[in-house]
Design brief:
The chain contains no helices and ten strands. Strand 4 and strand 5 form a beta hairpin.
Length: 107
Amino acid sequence: AQDAAGLLYLANPDGILIFDGAHWRRVPTPVPMRHVAVAGNGRIFAAGEGDVGTLELQPNGALRYQTLLGRLVTGKTDMGEVYQLAVNGNEVYVLAEKGLWLTAQVN
């Protein structure tokens, strides 16, 4: 996925890789990631083995992965392997091994 500033975000077994055209950075995640999507408002979402979350900017300027499992509309968190991630406005849809999941609106 690519954001408006041209940064590339790639899912990786060790987290989310970010490439600015010259340098790589890695944001660690608790599980191997498989998908990354950029919302229209610039937020970065990622999904992997049983987890979905967002990259949050910290006060020191670093990015940190924040899970959204507690914000799933169904309240269930056992989604299994994630097959696809889609962002529509402030809603995040996750097609996974155990069904289609929707997060509560994320600003």
